[in-house]
């Protein structure tokens, strides 16, 4: 068994790694989107928490529970996306490790890819739930 793969084997490994690498890039972009939304929700919650109870805008504080729910949904989506990215990263590593040792990885790679895809789908469901909750009557008050 040779630990130095041929040029043809390296080319094959890189072509197999393209899909997981693009998937990992998409997951990273999705995590960036979720964290940006999370920061907007947190900033809005901080703004509403700063309104004094005896102010004429105190009724706007009623929106805080909705913002907490949105933050929980986004946190869950971020964690699911991170799990998906971890699976994609493991898949990428598996492609190269098995290429160096000339091992078969079909079943393991399939399971990792299915897991990564399902986790990303779960994150997208959480994102959709957040989008549904996004606009609310309180958002129009200033």
Multimerization status: single chain
Relative helix content = over 70%
Q: Sheet with the most strands?
A: none
Give the CA-based shape: rod-shaped
Q: Would you list the SSEs in sequence order as H and E? A: HHH
Range of strand content: under 5%
Q: How many helices in DSSP terms?
A: 3
Protein name: DUF2721 domain-containing protein
Keywords: Membrane, Plasmid, Transmembrane, Transmembrane helix
InterPro entries: DUF2721
Pfam families: DUF2721
Structure description:
It is a single chain. This protein is mainly α and 142 residues long. The chain has one domain. Helices cover 77% and strands 0% of the residues. The protein is built from three helices and no strands. α1 runs antiparallel to α2 and α2 runs antiparallel to α3.
